[in-house]
Write a structure and sequence with these properties.
homodimer, about 180 residues, about 25% helix, 2 domains
Chain lengths: ~180, ~180
């Protein structure tokens, strides 16, 4: 049985491209089960800015990506992978035209942060052991009331982030 | 002459809608001469986030608005006018599609912060006496090399901000 377990882990490692180094042997079921974070980090709204972005299409949001001090330090020093304890967060608001700005400018060109989106807050929390099954990052997502996104939807996080393993699974680059 | 000066101030106040309370009488020439700030505030990149925005059209930028601690506290408490020492800053990057994000998502929808724009950094510094001629705010603007924007262009700051005197001349609202 022990031999069989190792074989399954080896196959999973090859197939998924995930390096499970220095972790004790576990069952295959444990390896692939993602663990989702259910708490919003304290004080995230005070964190420093990583960058900003606009997702058009169905998302139609404008977003800020923030980092806790560990993540910001790693970003600024170009340190990868991100150290343990790093948290990268993003806040997404609906991307809405600002009538008051446009009126003042005399041009229809200004878009601002509207109401919180369905997936208002999302965080990636670095803990290589706890979240080994998802590249060392735990994923979380919350609506404007702090209610976690349901687990079925959360299962789509890692498959997408996994495609950018060479950037330690983090999409956002630091804006200079 | 003293009476004439007061009359000019009174006329300017009525015409421009600017309240010059508790300031010593000065000549009309002094009242209307704008003073531009020529230094970038230390540590602005560490400031907390006020909001994000996208200016389309000729500007075509995506921007973050940050505030120093005095400004953020006033924003969060809804305190207006902003207290002395408040600084509101904004960083503007070109609004560019992210090919790497779009490729990963399988959808052309992601826009990120590109290179710094011509008016990369702009700040409003609250000093009611020093900047009495421009509503109590000093204005500054810098390119990516820290070079201040020329004074001719700076003269367009206040006429636009003056239109929103009821918001203490500040366009950006705090994003909840």
């Amino acid at each position: 049985m022990i031999r069989m377990t190792f074989l399954l882990i080896a196959v999973a490692t090859l197939a998924g491209g995930i390096a499970f180094t220095a972790t004790p042997p576990r069952t295959a079921a444990q390896e692939v089960a993602p663990v989702f974070v259910k708490t919003i980090p304290n004080g995230y709204r005070d964190w420093k800015l990583v960058s900003v972005a606009h997702e058009a299409g169905d998302l139609n949001d404008i977003r800020a990506v923030l980092g806790n001090d560990i993540a910001i330090k790693a970003y600024r020093e170009g340190k990868r992978p991100f150290p343990e304890g790093s948290i990268v967060g993003r806040i997404a608001w609906s991307h809405v035209p600002s009538e008051e700005n446009n009126k003042t400018f005399g041009k229809d060109q200004s878009f601002v942060a509207g109401s919180p989106t369905e997936f208002y807050l999302q965080f990636m929390v670095k803990d290589s052991k706890k979240y080994a099954a998802t590249g060392g990052w735990g994923y979380s997502s919350f609506d404007k009331n702090g209610k976690p996104t349901d687990e079925a939807a959360m299962k789509s996080c890692f498959p997408c982030h996994q495609k950018i393993q060479d950037r330690d699974f983090v999409f956002t680059r630091y804006a200079q």
